[in-house]
Amino acid sequence: MYLHPEAASAGAPSRDVLLVSAITTVSLSITIVLCGICQWCQRKLGKRYKTSLETVGTPDSSRGRSEKKTIKLPAGGKAVNTAPVPGQPPHDESDRKTEPRSSVSDLVNSLTSEMLMLSPGSEDDEGHDGVSRENLGRIQFSVGYNFQESTLTVKIMKAQELPAKDFSGTSDPFVKIYLLPDKKHKLETKVKRKNLNPHWNETFLFEGFPYEKVVQRVLYLQVLDYDRFSRNDPIGEVSIPLNKVDLTQMQTFWKDLKPCSDGSGSRGELLLSLCYNPSANSIVVNIIKARNLKAMDIGGTSDPYVKVWLMYKDKRVEKKKTVVMKRCLNPVFNESFAFDIPTERLRETTIVITVMDKDRLSRNDVIGKIYLSWKSGPGEVKHWKDMIARPRQAVAQWHQLKA
Q: Which of the two residues, 95 and 153, has the higher pLDDT score?
């Protein structure tokens, strides 16, 4: 069938039209591919940028909240924790799935860094002479005078942050109340078992005291650790002259406890070193020497040796002891003891050092004790922190023996 050229051109597209269509199709394809690549790049770059922001704690605008550092402690401890927004996953949950399992070194670093930050002791607790000033806690009490009944009222309320005196890492505190200079008549609170932050809320009355005599007295409070089978250990004391108190109404005080003036601070000192090996899960305790030990025998000397207890929570785990040094108040031991301590148990571990006087015919006497952990007194905590901060190094420090 024959068609006229003009009719044929009218029913079919021309070559120019086909060329333009092909060019348009190719351009669209290239654009789609480039957009896909661009979006993929943005996602990758965005993820990296977002991760870097989260590392330094910058607010994450995509989640509508600011990230804050979270510190978690094991069971039985306090936790400082910022709760996540309800319905949203934790901050690093998406990244955590793609990361390899944490190594032992990462666990050690995380644990020890938390312990260093949370330890209550610090270098600020030391004086200019480098001697640690121990925090003995504080006590809250009230005092007032009833003029009609000629009665002085003393209320012992509570205490906080008392030091541990027992092997279990705690104390059994109670309070004695005196009106000095009278030391014969005293009143006592109940004993609070295994409590470093006891609440007593007990009221005591000193009846028949004319006001003129009351203002000549000194209210003396002594906090002690109750021991069933031995002498009670003094924790600290507070003295307040009543002529400096407005007794017309009950006055409430918070007072820091000071060392008891009963000679308990003259028991001598012990030099020891600690070496923490996180890869071996061990601590090596080196008992080096002692000086100016208290004489426990009639001849004005002692036969000292040292016991080292490893405590986990409230349980005794393992005991080591040195040889006995006969008739010596400045013994040199140089004996080392290794204890296996898993890293995850380090925070709940206490090492109790007890210097003893050996007696052949009677019970051995305690010269003094030292409690080493991250929650002991400032001097002990400083040693513990230095040990953690300098792994695989022997860190030596002098410690004052305590009753």
A: 153
